[in-house]
């Protein structure tokens, strides 16, 4: 007896599912020419469907020449010999091999690295054991789509105490990192209108938006932050900004510019600002900078943050704060979405926040990162790099900018550094449009390197770059090679 697997919830009607199954059986040779099909009543009883459903399937097969009928005998498989035999599918091309891993440089100043050696493993492990013993069955249940209530409440308390943001736990949505949450926001806010991004800026956001089909509008910056005049000219409807510490320039958006940005958003009901507060915990000098969301009176700012830089990237835990009217829309349109962060990690992080471990960890890491920054600056001065340029961005974050005073091509400096075993990034790598800078600018992330590594790293840089700045040496041409320490 024919036994197709029927799905009553599928988009195809049941008769079409039966028809397609029998057609495949005939084309594949499982049903041979002249073989009699089950009677309509017998097949309907077997499949627990109506006789009309089977009759419609048989009639479709008859119309396409797959079966024929004999009076009072039923339906029989029609010979397919006159038809062109099906040719086997061409073999798929083999998948391209994964790119070979690049051998890590001895001194890598990439901006995507953080210190994981000082992660509080013992504290985290103890909290995990507590969660296993006390939460038990809750860990096996599906968490709330917005995140477990305990974690959302802990995040709300943290935002109130350290960022001046007063929100309700119901406004928090927990997700697996900023990339996932950005994609979710694109679905929530819609593709209509342009999506503005800072230029230069965090290129991953631009790539994610481009892949989702957004019209990406690069907006330049000045000393006060993102230029709102260029934003108006772009016609964009949503803008992604890093106002507390721009990446990678390190600019802190001025208060007049923040007010201008909020006015722009309030002029039309469908304009929104996505405030990415990616490393607000690591401000070393000056007073804390208030979050843009804390100044918002018109429900125009969506606050976004993660624990990637403050704890560890592998945790993949981020969150966003939606304005009340957007959280209502979110629940209506995304209530079927499951939480993308396991309950186990959410409960553990909630206790880590509630008991002050996160605050103590941040204080400790702030001291460690300050020591690394100071060691880098001292080593650069000792190696003579300050004769060729100056550093900027010391006040916050985990990277510095080195502005070269001579018109040497950025690419040449980056290549020479890599040959010397030192990894640095050109500022142009973070730009969508050609950067408007008077000279080359290099980005050095110091989150992962030990203070003891700074002296040999800067000495290697000095040796690699010295030929570019030698008297009489044409800009961008190396006139000699130097031995490396």
Q: What multimeric state do the chains show?
A: single chain
* Rounded average pLDDT: 87
Give the N-terminus to C-terminus distance in angstroms. Answer: 80 Å
Radius of gyration: 31 Å
Q: How many helix segments? A: 14
Q: Indicate the percent of residues in helices.
A: 25-40%
Structural class: alpha/beta
Strand portion? 5-15%
Number of beta-strand segments: 17
Report on this model:
The chain is of the alpha/beta class and 485 residues long. 38% of the residues lie in helices and 14% in strands. It contains 14 helices and 17 strands. The strands form five sheets. The protein has a seven-stranded mixed sheet with strand order 4-12-11-10-9-5-6, with helices on both faces. A four-stranded antiparallel sheet has the order 13-14-17-16, covered by helices on one side.
Notable characteristics:
single chain, about 475 residues, seven-stranded mixed sheet, disordered C terminus
List the topology elements:
Blueprint: H1 14-28, H2 40-47, H3 51-63, E1 67-70, E2 74-77, E3 107-108, H4 121-135, H5 149-163, E4 172-175, H6 177-189, E5 194-198, H7 203-212, E6 215-219, E7 221-222, E8 225-226, H8 228-234, E9 236-241, H9 255-266, E10 272-276, E11 301-306, E12 318-321, H10 324-334, H11 343-354, H12 357-383, E13 389-392, E14 399-404, H13 410-419, E15 422-423, E16 425-426, E17 441-445, H14 451-465
């Amino acid at each position: 007896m024919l036994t197709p697997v029927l799905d009553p919830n599928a988009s195809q009607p049941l008769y079409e599912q039966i028809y397609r199954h029998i057609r495949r059986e005939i084309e594949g040779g499982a049903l041979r020419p002249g073989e009699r099909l089950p009677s309509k009543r017998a097949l309907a009883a077997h499949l627990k469907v109506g006789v009309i459903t089977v009759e419609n399937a048989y009639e479709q097969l008859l119309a396409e020449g797959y079966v024929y009928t004999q009076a009072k005998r039923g339906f029989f498989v029609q010979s397919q010999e006159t038809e062109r035999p099906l040719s086997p599918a061409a073999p798929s091309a083999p998948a391209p091999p994964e790119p070979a891993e690049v051998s890590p440089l001895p001194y890598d100043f990439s901006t995507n690295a953080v210190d994981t050696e000082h992660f509080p493993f013992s504290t985290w492990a103890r909290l995990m054991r507590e969660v296993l013993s006390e939460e038990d069955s809750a860990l096996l249940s599906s968490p709330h789509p917005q995140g477990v209530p305990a974690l959302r409440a802990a995040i709300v308390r943290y935002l109130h105490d350290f960022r001046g943001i007063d929100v309700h736990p119901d406004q928090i949505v927990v997700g697996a990192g900023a990339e996932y949450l950005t994609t979710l926001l694109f679905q929530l806010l819609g593709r209509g209108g342009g999506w503005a991004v800072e230029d230069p800026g965090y290129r991953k956001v631009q790539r994610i938006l481009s892949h989702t089909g957004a019209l990406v509008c690069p907006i330049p910056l000045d000393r006060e932050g993102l230029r709102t005049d260029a934003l108006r000219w772009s016609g964009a409807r949503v803008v992604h900004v890093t106002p507390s510490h721009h990446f990678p320039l390190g600019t802190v958006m001025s208060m007049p510019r923040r007010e201008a940005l909020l006015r722009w958003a309030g002029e039309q009901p469908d304009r929104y600002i996505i405030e990415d507060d990616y490393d607000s915990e690591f401000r070393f000098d000056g007073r804390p900078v208030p979050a843009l969301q804390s100044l918002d009176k018109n429900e125009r700012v969506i606050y976004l943050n993660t624990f990637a830089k403050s704890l560890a990237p592998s945790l993949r835990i981020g969150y966003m704060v939606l304005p009340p009217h957007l959280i209502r829309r979110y629940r209506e349109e995304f209530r079927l979405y499951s939480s993308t962060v396991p309950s186990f990690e959410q409960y553990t992080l909630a206790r880590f926040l509630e008991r002050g471990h996160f605050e103590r960890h941040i204080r400790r890491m702030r001291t460690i990162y300050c020591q690394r920054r100071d060691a880098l600056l001292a080593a650069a001065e000792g190696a003579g790099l300050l004769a060729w340029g100056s550093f900027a961005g010391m006040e916050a974050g985990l990277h510095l900018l080195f502005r070269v005073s001579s018109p040497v091509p950025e690419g040449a400096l980056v290549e020479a550094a890599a040959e010397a075993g030192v990894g640095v990034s050109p500022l142009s790598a973070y730009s969508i449009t050609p950067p408007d800078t008077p000279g080359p600018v290099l980005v050095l992330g110091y989150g992962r390197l030990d203070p003891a590594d700074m002296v040999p790293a800067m000495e290697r840089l000095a040796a690699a770059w010295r030929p570019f700045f030698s008297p009489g040496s044409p800009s961008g041409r190396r006139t000699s090679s130097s031995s490396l320490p």
